[in-house]
Structures are given as C-alpha cells and as structure tokens.
Amino acid sequence: DQDAVDAAATAFNSLTDAQKALVANAGVLEAAIDTIEELEAGKEAADAVIAKVAALPQVEALTLDDEAAVNEAKAAYDELSDLVKTLVDEATVTKLDAAVTRIAELKADQEAADAVIEKINALPETITQEHKADVENARSAYDALTDAQKALVSEDIVAKLEAAEKALAIT
User: Fold this and answer.
1) CA-to-CA distance for 73 and 55, rounded, in angstroms?
2) Which end of the chain is more exposed for a tag (fewer CB within 10 A), N or C?
C-alpha cells in the first residue's frame, strides 16, 4: 500500500542518522519504495498493453489481417517486467494468449491450404493417364484438409481439380 510506504518513508526520513543506523529493517522500506516506483513507471506501459488487447476483435472473429496487432500486443506485454505484468488483469492476459494461439491456428490452416493449392496448380492444363498419380495426390491432399482449411481453397482451384479428375475419367 503506497500510503503506508509513504508514511514509513516520512517517519524514517525524520530520524537522525544515528537513529536510522539502529533501524534493522530499513532495507524492507527501500525495497517497498523501489517496487512502488517500478509499478508507477510501468503503469503507462501496462495500460497500453491492456488497451491494445481490448482493441483486438474477439478471438473467434480474428483473421490473419489481425496478426500484426496481436503480435504488437504480445511484444508489448513480453517487454513488461514480471512486476509490471501484475498490473495487467487476468482476463486481458487470457485474451492475449488465446489470440496468439488463434493466429497460430489460422496461419497453420492457411499453410495447409496453400500446400494443396500449390499441388492443384502444379497440375498441367492437359491431363493424361500419366498424370493420374498427381491428380490422385492432389485430391487426397484436398480431402485431408479440415473444413476451415477447405474454405481457404477457392472454388476456381477446386474446379481445376475436378476438371482434372474428369479428364482422367475420359482418357
């Protein structure tokens, strides 16, 4: 409590040097003063972290467009000392951790979808039986995607895969 520390500091400072020398636990007062000073100095940074996290969309609504804002909030939080981190409420820390996790999930989904898109785009325009393994590989990769990942593959890309499969059925 700052008022108690201020009162103790005032009382200590009113002592003579000889009396101060007799105070066995003056270090406790000095540590308390240092703690309060660190908290006061870090309050603005902690408040900035809280504001950055509050400005983020709800975790379920995050998109990869929010990655920079999430990373900025996480970096600002990580820069806080352990003591100043105590000024950031638990709900804010929970939301930040969930946002970081969600961005990682979204990136992983995009990477998985991109790998499948690359396989499909690598298929030649003219499909023959010699491309059967490539087409089947692309289909298997697409089918292995989650629904969220499949949603990241455009209809045009899926149509290209389906056209390749039709071409194989004809040849």
Assistant:
1) 10
2) N
> Per this entry, what is the length of the chain?
171
Put residue 123 in one of left, alpha, beta given phi > 0 → left and psi -120 to 50 → alpha: beta
Tally of CB atoms within 10 A around 16: 8
pTM: 0.72
Q: Would you say 137 and 119 are in contact if contact means Cβ atoms under 8 Å apart?
A: yes
Which DSSP state fits 58? P
Q: Give the residue ranges of DSSP H helices in the chain.
A: 2-13, 17-22, 26-55, 67-79, 82-85, 90-121, 132-143, 147-150, 155-170
Inter-axis angle of helices 67-79 and 90-121, nearest 10: 140
Q: How far apart are CA 3 and CA 33, in angstroms?
A: 11
Q: Of 157, 130, 126, 125, nearest to 141 (Cα)?
A: 157
What pLDDT, in 10s, does the model give residues 88-104? 999 999 999 999 999 99
Cβ contacts of residue 47 below 8 Å, gap of 6+? 87
